[in-house]
Specification:
Number of helices: 18
Distance between the termini: 19 Å
Order of helices and strands: HHHHHHHHHHHHHHHHHH
Shape: globular
Number of strands: 0
Structural class: mainly alpha
Helix content: over 70%
Largest sheet: none
Radius of gyration: 21 Å
């Protein structure tokens, strides 16, 4: 991996071991981690750009949903605008994933932001048919995994492969969780004051601001690989290479499966709030609980624990995050339900170890594509998990459907943990020609 700028180490850092591997030296000053990450000027630009675009995505979803509802009066089509934010991820994550490594990263990031800004601006045009609005939403969702994968690989260029990369990824996750809280509140306030079209225009401005920050604040670097042939063929062959490697496949599953079962209770919070008679305020409190737990855990673990301690927590937290949903079998009150959801959110900190192992396992020329596949798979399988939760709740009571996800989740995650343990963290990365 290229030498990072800023205070990161000037050479490759040894991969973070799993608990069965030899221990890595303890970080003498764990609390300095986030400060060192922010000391890298390029990361500050990437962070600020992501903050703008993340808020833009959340606000765009709200404004578009309201706009579609006002145009059609259909709750189904309004809800579909949120579903379309997840489903096209599989398209961008498979058919377009090679873009992340085939072209210079800064160019890819800027173009993705400009395309999203263009889509948001097109939504503002008066008289735009609803079908076109939904198609534009699909387009931005298909672009998202390419952008996320390219940005994740760029963090490796900026921060190196070691602990700063892991902490940088943590900060990106904190922004994502915070954007849910701040974005929904900001979107609601904006929609109370101005029209959905105006909010969408503001969203276009956030994407343009992100593009400008990335263009001026990050270095131009060459593409990771020089690929020949059609983009589709290169994307599919690269994805096959990644999935054919046992270690990478196991780590991808460890990244994907816990969120799949975590979203089961989250997808059913509105009907559960109705079951409790909690009203809109109670439903809002339930929706906020999981992001609060995630932000708190990410911040505390990243600040106070060193690399070895975070690695040791990876497997326990990966299993723990699906356990609190078992508590819904006891039909908890609003307060206890909030506690269960906060505890669920804390499990997100298992990603610290997975990120370190994953970047060590993937060859440099496929890192952008690997990150794109990781993001696309996570979002797609989360969407499927939400759908499965809804189907289950149609045929069983909520206090059966919600803990059932936890039972299946515990078994599934334990099986994946066993597979990750069986793979070797220190084996050479997969070989093969870069097509």
């Amino acid at each position: 991996m290229p030498t990072p700028s800023g205070p990161a180490a000037t050479g490759p850092t040894a991969p973070c071991p799993d608990p069965a591997a030899p221990p890595e030296p303890t970080n003498p000053d764990p609390g300095a981690g986030y400060r060192l990450v922010f000391a890298v000027p390029e990361f500050r630009s990437v962070f600020a750009a992501h903050l703008l675009s993340a808020l833009g995505v959340v606000v765009c979803e709200i404004a578009l949903s309201v706009l579609v509802y006002r145009l059609t009066g259909s709750p189904l089509l309004s809800a579909l605008t949120f579903a379309l934010g997840l489903l096209p991820y599989i398209i961008g994550g498979t058919l377009l994933s090679a873009i992340a490594d085939r072209y210079p990263a800064r160019r890819v990031l800027v173009v993705c932001d400009l395309l999203c800004a263009g889509c948001a601006a097109a939504m503002v045009v008066p008289g735009t048919p609803v079908a076109v609005l939904l198609a534009l939403r699909c387009a931005t969702a298909a672009i998202a995994p390419v952008f996320a994968g390219t940005r994740a690989a760029t963090l490796g260029d900026v921060l190196g492969e070691g602990d700063l990369f892991v902490l940088g990824r943590s900060l990106i996750r904190i922004v994502n969780q915070s954007a849910q809280l701040v974005g929904f509140a900001a979107g609601g306030l904006l929609l109370a004051a101005v029209t959905p079209g105006t909010v969408l225009a503001i969203t276009a401005g956030t994407f343009l601001g992100s593009a400008l920050l990335l263009r001026l604040g990050t270095r131009a670097r060459p593409a990771r690989r020089t690929a020949r042939g059609a983009l589709l063929g290169t994307s599919l062959s690269g994805t096959r290479r990644l999935l054919a490697d046992r270690r990478i496949r196991a780590l991808l599953l460890l990244t994907w499966l816990p969120p799949t079962f975590v979203v089961v209770p989250e997808a059913l919070l509105i009907p559960y709030a109705d079951l409790l008679g909690a009203g809109p305020a109670g439903a809002g409190l339930l929706m906020c609980a999981m992001p609060v737990g995630a932000i708190t855990a990410e911040t505390l673990v990243g600040t106070f624990l060193g690399p070895r301690a975070r690695a040791r927590l990876t497997f326990p937290l990966g299993v723990f995050c699906v356990l609190p949903s078992l508590g819904f079998a006891f039909r908890p009150s609003l307060g206890w339900a909030v506690v269960l959801l906060v505890l669920t959110g804390t499990g997100i900190a298992y990603n610290f170890g997975v990120d370190r192992w994953f970047v060590a396992a993937v060859p440099d020329e496929l890192l952008g594509q690997a990150m794109t596949v990781m993001q696309a798979g996570r979002m797609t399988i989360m969407g499927l998990g939400m759908g499965a939760a809804g189907v289950a709740a149609e045929y069983t009571p909520l206090w059966v459907a919600m803990p059932a996800g936890g039972v299946v989740g515990v078994v599934s995650v334990l099986l994946v943990v066993a597979e990750v343990r069986r793979t070797r963290a220190d084996r050479p990365v997969l070989s093969g020609p870069a097509e």
